[in-house]
Amino acid sequence: MDTFLKILVFSIIALTAYIYAGYPLILAFLGIFAPRRRGSGADRLPAIALIVSAHNEERIIREKIENCLKLDYPRDLLKIIISSDGSEDGTNGIVREYEGKGVVLKAFERREGKSATLTKTVLGIEEEVLVFSDANAFYKEDVLLKLVRNFDVAETGCVVGRLVYLDNESYVGKGESLYWRYEGLLNRLESRLGSVLVATGTIFAIRRELFRPVMKDIANDFQIPAEVASQGYGVVYEPEAVAFERSTYFFREEFSRKRRIVVRGLTGYNHLRHDFGGRLRSFQFISRKLLRWCVGAALPVVYVASIFLIREPFFVVFFALQNLFYIFAAIGAILRRGTVRTKIFFVPFYFMMVNAAAMAAIFKYLSGGRLSSWEKAETTRNVEEDSFVEPVLQVIEGSKKVSDPVEKYERIT
To answer: What band does 28 get if pLDDT is binned at 50, 70 and 90?
Structure first.
């Protein structure tokens, strides 16, 4: 019995080490042999349709449109489209105020979810490149130029930008920033292979002819890169194409968001697994997503097994370290909106939170639950607070003092 439990515990430890360290190392090794692919931006600029998804975004849509109008790109080559998914507030009215400035409103009365609405929005668009964004994501002025230069490489079909979270000083926000640093590293490594697994929904671009209808219960930033890859094109990461977004503040918002991501990810892979872009991408999904989502279920197994093995000195120490980690996570939960800010507490707290959300998502998926609409986190739409508006505007408007606020507020990749 003891031998079985030891094999079980060490297998889980080894698997966890592979998920967080081994997989990046494998990508780095494979990247050594991959050809460099980077556009120069020297070719002609393509016509772009910038599609902004919105549902009841009256609090922030004006600021988003103003941000889009300030982007450094020829106005005759840029069409700004607000895709309104059943908005019932003042969103559509605000957008109509900008129709004389080249902003197009595509308003759909019945809410069907972001993915289904995007499919209808793309119909009839003739621009060569589609850029997808959200209402709460604010772009640096040069973001479109940075994205499209990658299409100079004929094999590139999708370009994923870099999302920078503005630190709101909560443990949830800090944890999300740390998470995106790690995700940014994986994006860089996967990009060397021309196979970034998933896009960032707030900032990515594709060649229009590669777009296929998006299934309503699959996230567009999951399905679209997979289908671009399945058509034989590369998916790359452009770290200089930067979007800023406010991170969530409350635990319940981030927990719900993570749960939705996992449910839609499992749904997406189940639908697309036979047309996912090749064996490499399936390997990436299992390593980067599926195994990581299962870590939460493995933690109580390790804990219980350690109790039965506590007679041995190693497991006495190991069990004590587990308890210490969970105590720190509990303290982080208590202090998550307080003034005490240290990684000793917020890293264990965030780790436990995301793994609990993944477990809840797996249970929901296995019980038949599916999600077709996306409920936004309201604290990511609060534009009245200085901590959100000021650094964004300083970056967007190209102030000569950009570096200071960016260093202060930037927390990822």
So the answer is: very high
Q: Rounded to whole angstroms, how far apart are CA atoms 190 and 31? A: 8
Query: Nearest to residue 35, comparing CAs of 217, 236, 197, 207?
Result: 236
Name the one residue in this structure whose structure tokens are 């994986």: 186
Residue 129 near residue 148, CB atoms below 8 Å: yes
Backbone dihedral angles phi then psi of residue 296, each to the nearest 5 degrees: -55, -40
Contact yes or no for 225/212 (Cβ under 8 A): no
Band of residue 409 on the pLDDT scale cut at 50, 70, 90: very low
Distance separating alpha carbons of residues 62 and 67, to the nearest angstrom: 9
3-class secondary structure, 338: coil
Mapped onto helix, strand or coil, the DSSP state of residue 167 is coil
Strand, coil or helix: 397:
coil
CB 143 within 8 A of CB 243: yes
* CA separation for the pair 244, 251 (Å, rounded): 21
Give the span between the Cα atoms of 267 and 371, in whole angstroms.
Answer: 9
Cβ atoms of 169 and 261 within 8 Å: the answer is: no
